[in-house]
Amino acid sequence: MPAPIEDWWPRLSQETRDWLIAHNGDEVTASVAQQIARAGGAVEADAWQTGQDDPHGSYLSDEAVDWIEAVANGEVPPRHSAT
To answer: Fewer Cβ in 10 A, N or C end of the chain?
Structure first.
């Protein structure tokens, strides 16, 4: 079971976190998805932090986008469970 975003977020490189903040809501590239997986997260339809796959790629869920936006704004986002 993948860890919640607040657990794997600190394990990402600063470059990847910066990319996710700058591209929040955009398609998650294969490289970023691999880095998320290595950090303990997942980019798959049954994890809370991921949205649906469509023909154009994978996207983070609204909850994950909101979480990242809160971090980008210097706020403390709410904790989510992996279920």
So the answer is: C
